[in-house]
Amino acid sequence: MAIPLKKNLETVLRQRRETGTIVTLWIDAIRINQQDDEEKSWHVPSMNIIYLTAQTVTIWLGSADADSDLAMLGLLHLGHKGVYEGMPNLGRRGLDAFEHFLNRPWWDRVRIIQEVALGGLGGNIGKLKVQCGTEKIG
Questions:
Q1: What is the 3-state secondary structure (H, E, C) of the chain?
Q2: Contact call for residues 67 and 110 (beta carbons, < 8 A)
Q3: CA neighbor of 119 nearest in space, from 32, 36, 60, 33
Q4: CA-to-CA dists, residue 20 to 16, 25, 31, 49, angstroms
Q5: pLDDT tens digits for 16-68?
Q6: What is the value of pTM for the model shown?
């Protein structure tokens, strides 16, 4: 059975592919009828269990663009320092990269709270990965 894939999903599947390894993925765009609000609301509680029990939760922010690698580098730097310690001087280019990065459609989705909070809850923080293009954090 062929499943039509949107470009973004096709891209993440190609990026996530591991040759010689069996990988089990939960892809809500395939598993849940995105056009059916009733079906989506029925699946929301079960997604909590999926995120909590997953070996890895990968947050896919989309394909790389001209400045996403710079934004990911800044994000990585911030993740290794305390909130007020070692804040990097991003300069105009870095700030523009972050602004562009934070305007990606992923940040508008309500379910991101589930993905981040439950995917990295407590001792599970190490299983949370953020990926934009080929750049990964986590």
A1: CCCCCCHHHHHHHHHHCCCCCCCCCCCHHHHCCCCCHHHHHHHHHHHHHHHHHCCCEEEECCCCCCCHHHHHHHHHHHHCCCCCCCCCCCHHHHHHHHHHHHCCHHHHCCCHHHHHHHHCCHHHHHHEEEEECCEEEC
A2: no
A3: 60
A4: 13, 16, 24, 28
A5: 777 888 888 888 778 888 788 898 888 877 877 887 788 888 888 889 999 99
A6: 0.75
